[in-house]
């Protein structure tokens, strides 16, 4: 599936969830953990899937290589790099089952990223159901999987930033591990924004972000800010809108 089609699928799923009426239904299942970090010392993991619905559910599991293009846009491609079993999971209400995940080696120079997708499959056709009375929303959960070599290090560089209709900021990662942005702070430590769109910045990637945030009091045309990336806090100055 090409990148544009992946974008369309994601946008349609989000729209369907927002517009779903009380007559709409979707599978109610959960996965744990929410991500994996595999290393040379830890080459495997276990994903637990729980059916929290009142009806049986069938799921498909598949792996995709996850990269970012020159504009920092997520790209997904089929891959055989990950080994996992089973590839189909059938769950009765309240059931839990595990998917075993592994990789042969983590020997690359920079971290590699994947997603293990758990896709809800359509339920069997019910001839007694009025097809026009219900909207079926099939859920897909993409669990991040990172293969991290020894010594990999994340580095965040803020190239430019400006307040306008939100905060426009250009960031780069010249390191060998991902950066995961979590929030924007003022120079005084006040939280200005969280849940940053496009929060992952992969090694060697440069991307532009628009973060919904209002400019704090501005002096001299610039305001000091900080980007919280978990293990690191990067300070920078943003130009104020005129």
Automatic annotation (TrEMBL):
UniProt keyword annotation of Ribosomal protein present: no
Signal peptide positions (record): 1-26
Domain Pili assembly chaperone N-terminal: 37-151
Pfam families to which the protein is assigned, alphabetical: PapD_N (PF00345)
Keywords: Signal
Domain of life where this protein originates: Bacteria
PANTHER family: PILUS ASSEMBLY CHAPERONE, SLR1668 PROTEIN
Protein name: Molecular chaperone
Organism: Lysobacter brunescens
């Amino acid at each position: 599936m090409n990148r544009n089609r992946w974008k369309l699928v994601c946008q349609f799923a989000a729209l369907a969830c927002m517009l779903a009426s009380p007559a709409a239904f979707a599978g109610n299942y959960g996965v744990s953990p929410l991500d994996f970090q595999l290393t040379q010392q830890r080459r495997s993991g276990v994903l637990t899937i729980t059916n929290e619905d009142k009806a049986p559910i069938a799921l498909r599991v598949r792996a995709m290589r996850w990269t970012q293009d020159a504009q920092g846009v997520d790209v997904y491609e089929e891959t055989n790099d990950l080994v996992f079993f089973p590839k189909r999971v059938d769950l009765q209400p309240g059931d839990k089952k595990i998917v075993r995940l592994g990789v042969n080696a983590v020997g690359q120079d920079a971290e590699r990223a994947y997603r293990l997708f758990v896709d809800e499959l359509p339920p069997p056709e019910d001839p007694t159901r009025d097809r026009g009375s219900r909207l079926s929303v099939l859920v897909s959960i993409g669990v991040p999987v990172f293969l991290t070599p020894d010594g990999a290090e994340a580095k965040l560089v803020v190239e430019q930033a400006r307040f306008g209709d939100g905060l426009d900021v250009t960031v780069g990662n010249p390191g060998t591990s991902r950066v995961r942005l979590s929030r924007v702070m003022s120079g005084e430590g006040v939280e200005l924004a969280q849940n940053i769109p496009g929060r992952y910045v992969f090694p060697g990637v440069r991307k532009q972000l628009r973060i919904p945030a209002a400019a704090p009091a501005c002096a001299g045309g610039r305001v000091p800010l900080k980007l919280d990336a978990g293990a690191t806090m990067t300070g920078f100055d943003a130009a104020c809108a005129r």
